[in-house]
Design goal:
Strand content: 15-25%
Radius of gyration: 25 Å
Largest sheet: 6 strands, mixed
Bound molecules: adenosine-5'-diphosphate, magnesium ion
Shape: globular
Number of helices: 11
């Protein structure tokens, strides 16, 4: 019996696992790491018609490439899958049973809060090494010091350096998957050697954003600061593997090669954030047609998220980026979770967040619609900060009583009507992104934006 593999559909993305040299005229040569898009199946299931990044089309052998897939949501990806948190010495020993020299895990120290313990199985016995946290660094022997646990584990993987053995096999925390493995298995891992970091182009909450060159294309690279935030990056990248739309900033891949650094590589958005774009150009440069185009772009990206049950949670002009050809795309999926998850409300951008989300953590597509209304207001006021002249502490009480911002100067009344619908205190009364997109298209078609 033979197993029939479902053929890949047109539009499927693949990454090359090997170099492929052209053998026949119609073959499409490629090199390892290149991303190709399937254009059509052929009569031979071992060959596909595919397109490369610069639009050349030809035949490719299926066994040279790997299908790229969205990482399944709900997967708990961890950069430190060997970290088991607060477990006791006895629990650690049970986890490292049956004995296997080099099998290890890290736990929080029970005797010394704030410190960690490295537990290693060694010739039938488990050794517990105390990891001391000393003036911002971690150390076992007070000779070798590390910035974080990932670096420490990497060091003792390469070299026993005084331990009973080097670390050979992580004991994985139940239910977690090593982020490194997941990204390479699903085809999203890129190679550091293919990436050149050129210059800093932005400062993010998590670290610098850099302009890079990846195999000849300009890319943006989010660089990690330390291991606590690295985990948040992993969550962001995980979400991005599942999303593909012309109005969402596209993930190109992730680099998790050396264990102490993480890079998220996305398409480069040459004109930067929408809020800066609006502020720097202003009313004299940007006409009504252009403002409406940005509004429509964002509504289309958000409609895609709505259709796929993703809630953004941090939609604002600062998180929309503008491409070289003036297309606005939604970015910053750091807070994006699949609908229904809840989160810490203390760090929320008050002026952009719907009242029910602030009050009861009720995040939904409808709370994104509220933020979209604020974003429209930002667009039509050329990047002003919302609720001007109202102190931050007064915003929520006034909004809850039904206060709505005035129309920005010169904003067409039909567009202001759209904003006001988004700011309905009852989330169920707000329009869907689909409706919003239709309304904006109607405004565009009838040239009501002046
Ligand atoms: P964070 O939300 O973590 O603070 P952002 O993703 O918003 O970080 O990035 C910070 C800044 O870096 C943005 O405001 C923008 O100026 C720049 N930036 C981020 N991503 C890109 C990109 N893909 N292309 C160009 N510039 C970018
Ligand atoms: Mg941001």
């Amino acid at each position: 019996m033979s197993v029939v593999q479902t053929p890949w559909q047109a539009g499927t993305e693949c990454v090359a696992n090997y170099d492929f040299q052209q053998k026949a005229d119609q073959d499409l040569p490629f090199s390892k790491g290149e991303v190709l898009t399937i254009v059509a199946v052929t009569k031979d299931p071992n060959w596909y018609k595919a397109k490369n990044k610069v639009g050349q089309v030809g035949f490719i052998p299926a066994n040279y490439v790997q299908k790229r897939e969205g990482v399944k949501s709900g997967t708990k990806l961890s950069l430190m899958p060997w970290f088991h948190g607060k477990i006791t010495r006895e629990q650690a020993e049970r986890l490292l049973y049956p004995p296997e020299t080099g099998l290890f895990l890290v736990r929080e120290s029970t005797n010394y809060p704030g410190d960690y313990t490295l537990c290693v199985s060694c010739e039938g016995k488990v050794e517990h090494y105390r990891i001391i946290y000393k003036s911002g660094k971690l150390t076992i022997d007070e000779e070798a010091y590390f910035d974080n646990l990932m670096q420490l584990v990497e060091h003792y993987t390469n070299d026993a350096d005084g331990l009973c053995t080097n670390l050979t096999k992580p004991k994985l925390m139940e239910g977690t998957v090593a982020a490194q493995d997941m990204f390479s298995q699903s085809g999203w891992a890129l190679k550091m050697k293919d990436l050149k970091l050129l210059q800093i182009i932005g400062k993010g909450e998590f670290g610098d954003v850099m302009l890079g060159d990846y195999r000849g294309s300009k890319v943006a690279v989010k660089c990690i600061k330390n291991d606590a935030t690295a985990q948040a990056f992993v969550a962001e990248a995980l979400v991005m593997t599942q999303l593909r739309h012309k109005n969402l900033v596209q993930l190109l891949g992730v680099i998790v090669e050396d264990k102490s650094s993480l890079f998220i590589v996305t398409e480069f958005m040459a004109k930067g954030s929408l809020v800066d774009y609006l502020r720097s150009r202003g009313r004299s440069v940007l006409g009504g047609e252009c403002l409406l185009k940005f509004s429509l772009d964002v509504s289309e990206g958000m409609e895609y998220l709505e259709d796929n049950n993703f809630v953004h949670r941090d939609l604002a002009a600062r998180n929309v980026l503008v491409s070289e050809d003036n297309i606005a795309k939604v970015s910053d999926f750091g807070l994006t979770k699949e609908a229904s998850a809840t989160q810490d409300t203390s760090k929320l951008p008050v002026k952009w967040t719907a009242p029910e989300a602030l009050r009861e953590k009720l995040f939904s597509t409808k709370s994104d619609v509220w933020s979209f209304g604020i974003l429209l207001w930002e667009i039509y006021s050329f990047g002003r900060v919302p609720y001007p002249r109202i102190a931050l502490k007064d915003v929520v009480p006034r909004v809850e009583k039904g206060y709505k911002m005035d129309s920005p100067d010169g904003c067409s009344p039909v567009v202001y009507e759209v904003m006001k619908q988004c700011w309905n205190v009852d989330p169920n009364q707000r329009p869907s992104f689909r409706k919003l997109r239709e309304q904006l298209e109607h405004i565009k078609a009838n040239e009501l934006f002046q």
